[in-house]
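Customer ticket, subject: "Can you confirm the structure for LLM class flavin-dependent oxidoreductase?"

Message body: Hello, I'm evaluating your service for our small team and ran a test protein. I'd like someone to confirm that this is what the system normally returns, since I don't have a reference to compare against.
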Amino acid sequence: MKIGIGLPNHVAGVSGSAMGAWARRAEERGFESVTTIDRLIYPCLDSLVALSVAAGATSELGLVTNVLLTPLYSTPVLAKQLATVASCAGDRLTIGIGVGSRPDDYAAVGVDFGKRGRVLDDQIEAMRRAWSGQTTLCSAPVQIPLLFGGRSEATIRRATTVGDGWVAGALRDFPTQSVFADRVRAGWQAAGRPGEPQIHASVNFALGSDEVVQAGRDHLARYYGFKPDYAKLNVDDMIHSAEEARHTVRGYRDLGFDRLLFHPAVASLDQIDRLADAVL
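Agent reply: Thanks for trying us out. I re-ran your input and got the following:
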């Protein structure tokens, strides 16, 4: 199982200069990939721009969006941007996408929140055409793995028919995650797809002193504060010890997941070393 670490692009007030340093240190310590979380109406850094900085600062590190809220973006512009990152980075890019659950993000860009799933379906078709060279949008065809986040029937349909797999949410409900992963695998076979779908999971973490752990919990409470019950679940589930991190790796590895992404809840560079010492 591949192990990646998130860039702290989603932490409120984080400095843009931290992205390159974070990515370089992650590559030095042996993480397989870095990933970003996407959000518009929040004082954080843009997901795709941060990932682009990471691409330029490294040479072999995988680049993952987990997840990119594509209905917020102009489809032709986004297709071109993603193809450009994939081309410049040497095909290191994997895209996890979803629709999200924050109406304020959609209101800000004038997209109907209730129709975001239909927008996503249209985008998939248009982006696939662009990446395959069927339009003049991109400079050359690119191959970009495309995974879908969520737990709806639509997620299974997208992951197994037009996508390359599924991205699990950050809460470590192993039995539920396993059941949904099996449904994706079964849907993949039923659709007559060759090989196996990619299955990713993600978790939140903050390692160190009591003050650091509390700062991580405070971040999650703010970030998911638009849904207080869901915020509490994330706060309670946050990994805060090396042993807990190792247990999580064992759990997802035993379930046959292909990649596990650790999203930092604090932006201190030492989080990379603390996590690497625990799980690599």
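A couple of notes from the result: The radius of gyration is 18 Å. The longest strand covers residues 198-205. Feel free to reply with more questions.
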